[in-house]
Design a protein that fits this description.
2 copies of one chain form a homodimer. Chain A is an alpha/beta fold and 281 residues long. Chain A folds into 2 domains: 123 residues, Tetrapyrrole methylase, N-terminal domain (Cobalt-precorrin-4 Transmethylase, domain 1, 3-Layer(aba) Sandwich), CATH 3.40.1010; 134 residues, 2-Layer Sandwich (Methyltransferase, Cobalt-precorrin-4 Transmethylase, Domain 2), CATH 3.30.950. Helices cover 26% and strands 21% of the residues of chain A. In chain A, the strands form 2 sheets. A 6-stranded mixed β-sheet of chain A has the order 6-7-10-8-9-11. A 5-stranded parallel β-sheet of chain A has the order 3-2-4-1-5, with helices on both faces. In chain A, helix 4 packs across helix 5. Chain A is elongated. The termini of chain A are far apart. The interface between A and B is large, with 67 and 67 residues. Chains A, B: Keywords: Methyltransferase, Porphyrin biosynthesis, S-adenosyl-L-methionine, Transferase. Chains A, B: Belongs to the precorrin methyltransferase family. Chains A, B: Pfam families: TP_methylase.
C-alpha cells in the first residue's frame, strides 16, 4: 500500500515507522500559491510543493507553479465560472480521502487560502475527519496588484484602512455593507468583482463615495499578461467591460498613485490604459 | 567610483554600460520581508536581497533574513516605539541619497510595504527625485497569523469581508470608523494595537459589536516565539496586557476556529493561552 513510486512523502513516513507494513496517515497542507508569478511563491510554499504526493488545484494556479512539483499527481478542481467545477463539499471530501490513502496532499490555491480562498471550509472538513491540516499563507492578489502598480493600499493622509470584499454573489448581486464601504479615507478592494462592477460602483456612489474617487482595475496581477486600468468610480463599469481574466477592483484616493509604467518595469506589462472619465459623471 | 568590493550590483551596471567610467544611477526596491519566518519570504524578495548593495531595514526584520544578504551593507532605521528611530522624511532622503551613489538599495520592511508599511511615502520620494523604485509585495502579518492559528480571515457564513486598520495613533487614541468596524459578518484586524487594545475594544463594543465576539491576539506571528491568545472582545484589554512583541488583534466570529495547537505543529509555538472571559462582561 502507498507504494507507487511517486508517493515519496508517504513512503518516507512508512519508512520512519520502522518499515512495518502499516499505512501512515497522510495529511493536508493548504498552500497559498500567490498571485501568479512563480517568484511570488514563498519559500515555504515551494518546499510544500516539492514534498507533495498530490496537488489539488484550481484553474487560477499557473502551469509554471504546478511544474515546480513534477513528482506530484495533479487533480484540477477548477472553480472558474462557466467551466466544470467540483462543488466545495466534494473538494473537502476529496482532500480527506487522499490523506486517508497516506498521501502528502497539497491543496494549492491562488493568493492566500484564508482570504476568499474558502480554506476555512477545507480546514474544518479535515479537522472533523481527524486529518492533520496546516496552512501556508500566500501573497494575496491585492498586495501584488498594489505593489506592481505603485499604488499603496494604505497611505498617510488618504487611506488609513483597507477593506477586502468579494463582488461574487451566489445568486444575483453582492450583499455588502455599502455605507461602511463608501466612507472616505480607506481603500476598498473587490475580489471577483468584474461582472458586478457596475452594480458595485452604483451602490458605492449612492452611499456617498464620490464618483471622482480614483479606481484601479488590475487583471492578472503579477502575470506576464497583467493589465491595469486607472479610472474613477464613475468610470468603473465601462472600464471593466471585456475583462476576462481574474481581476481586482481597487477604489480609493491612494490609487491615483498608480503609474502607467512603473520605472524599471519592462516586458511584464502587456497593456495599460488610463481613462479620464470625469466627464462621465 | 562605485568601486568598493561590496557594490556588486552597481559594478554590474557599470560593466553593462560598456566599461566606461560613468556612474550608473542606482535604484530602490521596497521589499516586503514577510512576518518573520525566513521561509515566508517570497522567492522574488530573496533574489532582491541577494542582488542588493545596501539594506535599509527596521527592527521588525529578523536577523535570519538579514543574513540572507551577507554582501550588503546594513542600515538600521528602527521604527519600534521607545527606541531611537529615524523620522520618515530622513529615511526617504537616505534612500534617495544611496541610490544616487549608484547603489542597489533594498528597503526591507516587515510584512508588506504597502499595508501599514509607509511604502507609499518612500515611493513618492523616489519618484520626486527621479529614482527608479519598484515594490516587491510580502506576506502581511495578518495572513501569517491567520494561517498559523487555523482561523480564516474570511469564512462562509461568518466573515464575508475583512478590514485592516492600525491601532497606532501619532497623538493619543486612534481615530477609526467605529460604526463601520462594529458591523457583524466581518473580521477586523488591528495592526499595532496592543497599547490601545482597551480603547479599541471599548469603542467597538459601544458601537454595537458584541462583547462575546471571539478575538485572537497573535504576537510575533510565524516566529519561533509566536504566542496566541484566544479571548473575546470583552476580554481583549486584559489579554493584551504585558505583550511586548509586535502583535495583531483579530476580532470576528471566524476567530473562534483558532486552535490551541494546530495539528502537526510542534516547537514553533511557545505559549498559548485560552481565556474564557464571558464572566468579565
Amino acid at each position: 500500500m502507498a507504494s507507487s513510486p511517486d508517493r515519496t512523502a508517504a513512503n518516507r513516513l512508512v519508512a520512519l515507522s520502522g518499515g512495518e507494513a502499516v499505512r501512515a496517515m497522510g495529511r493536508v497542507t493548504l498552500v497559498g500559491a500567490g498571485p501568479g508569478d512563480p517568484d511570488l511563491l514563498t519559500i515555504k510554499a515551494l518546499k510544500a510543493l516539492q514534498a507533495s504526493d498530490v496537488l489539488v488545484h484550481d484553474g487560477l494556479v499557473s502551469a509554471e507553479i504546478l511544474d515546480l512539483a513534477p513528482q506530484a499527481r495533479r487533480i484540477d478542481v477548477a472553480k472558474r465560472k462557466s467551466r466544470h467545477t467540483l462543488p466545495q463539499d466534494d473538494i473537502n471530501q476529496l482532500l480527506v480521502a487522499l490523506a486517508r490513502e497516506g498521501l502528502e496532499v497539497v491543496r494549492l490555491k491562488g493568493g492566500d487560502p484564508f482570504l476568499f480562498g474558502r480554506g476555512g471550509e477545507e480546514l474544518s472538513a479535515c479537522r472533523e475527519a481527524g486529518i492533520d491540516c496546516t496552512v501556508v499563507p500566500g501573497v494575496t492578489a491585492a498586495l501584488a496588484a498594489s505593489a506592481g502598480a505603485g499604488a499603496p493600499l494604505t497611505h498617510r493622509g488618504s487611506a488609513q484602512a483597507v477593506t477586502f470584499v468579494t463582488g461574487h454573489a451566489a445568486h444575483g448581486e453582492p450583499d455588502l455593507d455599502w455605507t461602511a464601504l463608501a466612507r472616505p479615507n480607506q481603500t476598498v478592494v473587490v475580489y471577483m468583482g468584474v461582472s458586478t462592477a457596475g452594480f458595485i460602483a452604483q451602490r458605492l456612489t449612492a452611499a456617498g463615495r464620490a464618483g471622482s474617487t480614483p479606481a484601479l482595475i488590475v487583471e492578472n496581477a503579477s502575470r506576464t499578461d497583467e493589465r491595469r486600468i486607472l479610472t474613477t468610480l464613475a468610470g468603473l463599469a465601462t472600464a471593466a467591460e471585456g475583462l476576462k481574466g481574474p481581476a481586482l477592483l481597487m477604489v480609493g484616493e491612494a490609487m491615483a498613485m498608480a503609474e502607467i509604467k512603473v520605472p524599471g518595469e519592462t516586458a511584464t506589462l502587456a497593456v495599460v490604459e488610463v481613462q479620464n472619465v470625469s466627464s462621465g459623471q
